[in-house]
Amino acid sequence: MLLRQDRAQTAIAVALDVAFHAGRAGALVGASEVAERLGAARRGLEPVLQGLSRAGVLESVRGPRGGYRLARRPREIRLLDLVLALEEGAEPPAGDALSGALQAAVTAPLWGELDKLLRDHLAGLTLDDLLRNASAAGLRRPTSEPLNFAI
Predict the structure, then answer these.
(1) Share of the chain above pLDDT 70, in %
(2) pTM for the complete prediction?
(3) Which domain holds residue 19?
(4) Is the pLDDT of residue 61 over 60?
(5) 78 with 125: CB under 8 angstroms?
(6) Residue 146 placed within a domain
(7) CA-to-CA dists, residue 118 to 2, 77, 111, 125, 142, angstroms
(8) Residue 147: what pLDDT?
(9) Does the residue 77 lie in any domain?
(10) Which of 8, 9, 103, 105 is the most buried (most CB within 10 A)?
(11) What is the DSSP code (8-state) at residue 77?
């Protein structure tokens, strides 16, 4: 089955956002915060967050101060794991089944080769690689300051 670019991109973006903003201390990141930063509807991201949680990529904490954090270290999470977490059980989009001699002999094999190349490349990259790219691009993780109740 060919990778669905929209699903793959969303899974990687969500996991990277959680990894980047939860930081090394394992702070929790709320679904609303992730949605706001990604410019997406929270309701649209919930299935992604739940899928990544079921796959053991994210840990979900319920409650008023709940949220998400990585369930494993970033270097242990391959990008392909993220994509496959959302691909499992997903139905192929309706109407995408093309037919014809050229499709069967040329186009379908081409997309199959590209899909394999992409899967192999994603299998070789981890969230840690993306976090290093963010650092190299000058992006800095937010630092959480401890609450101070002194008046």
Answers:
(1) 83
(2) 0.83
(3) 5-136
(4) yes
(5) yes
(6) no
(7) 10, 16, 10, 11, 31
(8) 47
(9) yes
(10) 8
(11) -
